[in-house]
Structure formats: structure tokens, C-alpha cells
């Protein structure tokens, strides 16, 4: 995710929410062609091919962060 630009991250999160290109374009005040470019770039950077893969990636990253938090909390309670 660090490799993504601010705008690519915005588009990423809107794709995860299920918005279509035209909806994203309207929300961000940019053209649908620009949204398509951002989607293409973020997918390339993340090694993903489809919108479904973007959604799966989001939830996988979220799960990994939660597991890391749980591990940190359990370690701090041991001492």
C-alpha cells in the first residue's frame, strides 16, 4: 500500500466499497478515464488483475493488521 499514491489509495478504498468507475469519478471530481488509469496503476502495483482481487487484498491486509495487533497485545500482557 505504501507504493500507492494518495489518489490511488482513494480509488482503492472506493473500489473496495463497491463503487463503479462513474461513481468514483463523480465523487472525486475527475473523469472516468482518469479513474480507470488509477485503477489500472494500483492493480499493477499490487499485482492484482480484477476488482474482486482488490477487495480480497483489502480484507487480507486488514486481517493481517488485526492479527499483528492481537499478537502485540498478548505479548504486552504477559509481562
Describe this structure in words.
The chain has 79 residues and is an all-alpha fold. The protein has helices spanning 6-16, 21-28, 32-46, 51-78. Helix 1 packs across helix 3 (32-46) and helix 1 (6-16) packs across helix 4. The N and C termini lie far apart (33 Å). The mean pLDDT is 92.
Which key phrases capture this entry?
79 residues; mainly alpha; 78% helix; elongated
Helix content: over 70%
Oligomeric state of shown chains: single chain
- Strand-residue proportion: under 5%
Report the major sheet. none
Along the chain, the helix and strand elements come as: HHHH
Radius of gyration, taken over Cα atoms and rounded to an integer in Å:
16 Å
- Based on helices, strands and strand pairing, what is the structural class? mainly alpha
User: Could you tell me how far the N terminus lies from the C terminus, measured between alpha carbons in angstroms?
Assistant: 33 Å
Low-pLDDT sequence parts = none
Provide a count of the helices.
4
The total strand number stands at 0
Describe, in short, the structure shown:
By secondary structure, the protein is mainly α. The protein has helices spanning 6-16, 21-28, 32-46, 51-78.
Topology, pairings included?
Blueprint: H1 6-16, H2 21-28, H3 32-46, H4 51-78
Helix pairs in contact: 1-3, 1-4, 2-3
